[in-house]
Amino acid sequence: MTSHKINVALGERSYSVIVGHGVINNIDDFVPKMAKRAVVVTQKNISIQPTLKIESTTVFIGDTEEHKSLTTIEMLAQKFAEFGLTRNDVVVGVGGGMVTDVAGFAAASWHRGTPVVHVATSLVGMVDASVGGKTGVNIESGKNLVGAFWQPLGVICDLDALKTLPPREMRCGLGEVAKYHFLTGDDLLELEMSARIARCVEIKAKIVSEDERESGGRALLNYGHTLAHALERSSNFSMAHGEAVAVGMIFAAHLAHAMKRISQDRVDEHYSVIGDAYGLKVKPDETIDRRKLIQLMHLDKKAISGLTFVLDGPSGIEVVSGVSEAHLEQAFDAMQLSEN
Ligand SMILES: NC(=O)c1ccc[n+]([C@@H]2O[C@H](COP(=O)([O-])OP(=O)(O)OC[C@H]3O[C@@H](n4cnc5c(N)ncnc54)[C@H](O)[C@@H]3O)[C@@H](O)[C@H]2O)c1
């Protein structure tokens, strides 16, 4: 079956991402020649696991964000020590974005930097989390506040893993896939799933290559995220990230239209890609509190000068600061959101 190979061009830290069915069998291509041992970091419910030629051990970490913690990093470091993992060896993260973020950060800190290979098993992991080298864990004050940039030696996206991915997790991934439709002018819907995932990886790889440390263009990957983060927080995280991103992109389209940056046709295109093609919700189930959402959006990490959004416009998607509350109100009205 066809597989796709995408290069993430980062000079001496460049690497490949392999997308396709059964590509987990290529894992040895990414194991460094010097490595004698590997620690596989994964979770109990991950259905695919690699077979490595070198001596290996598997360490299971807990499921859910609460285990994306410094306690898990300490536990892993302890296991690395017991197994005798050296800096010439390798860590292999096998799972969704939570696992690859944790395995990546454990590898980045172990002996101040040990090679890591990722096997992404969720759709979010494949099109986003495993590519680009952002690793980290949560602390009580917030998500992903402790971390490091640590590029993997390679990434495997084996589509066979998606057979066991729970439907809600699949929807979250589709929210991110939908995002890539608007980052370029491509019609990704034309492509079959494996080629579409590969194209998403290629788009992300290009953005990362141009802005490895997120000082500019990488912020575009946050399309739909300003309202999404506020929705996640105001729903006490009962709304999943990908679901919130889908609604956030619809909101961003209405906002861009209210600011006369895009036409009604482009807004309609958001509904047809997000709602019709991917079957995602285009507004929250619950009534919303606009004031609270606006307050939360003011706290967004990108909000350096006033309310900041990633918005579509005549020159494509870009970061726009100083958005007025009047425009936000117009966008909320256009979405016909019910308020409490
Ligand atoms: N580093 C980055 O650039 C980046 C980008 C986006 C998201 N993230 C992070 O990624 C995480 C979200 O990733 P996610 O959506 O993959 O969540 P996740 O890793 O928590 O996985 C969601 C659930 O799906 C299960 N799962 C994963 N693959 C499976 C499979 N093949 N079969 C059955 N179950 C499977 C997991 O065990 C978990 O229960 C968040 O922590 C987020 O902060 C990081």
Features:
alpha/beta; Rossmann fold; Dehydroquinate synthase-like, alpha domain; 10 helices; 11 strands; 39% helix; binds nicotinamide-adenine-dinucleotide
Task: Provide a quick synopsis of the model.
This protein is α/β, with parallel strands linked by helices and 340 residues long.
**Radius of gyration over C-alpha positions, nearest whole angstrom:** 20 Å
Q: Level of helix content? A: 25-40%
Which fold name is given in CATH as the topology of the largest domain? Answer: Rossmann fold
The number of E-state strands comes to: 11
Q: What CATH architecture label of the largest domain applies?
A: 3-Layer(aba) Sandwich
Number of helices: 10
Structural class: alpha/beta
Q: What average pLDDT do the residues reach?
A: 94
Shape call: globular
Bound molecules: nicotinamide-adenine-dinucleotide
What distance separates the N and C termini? 52 Å
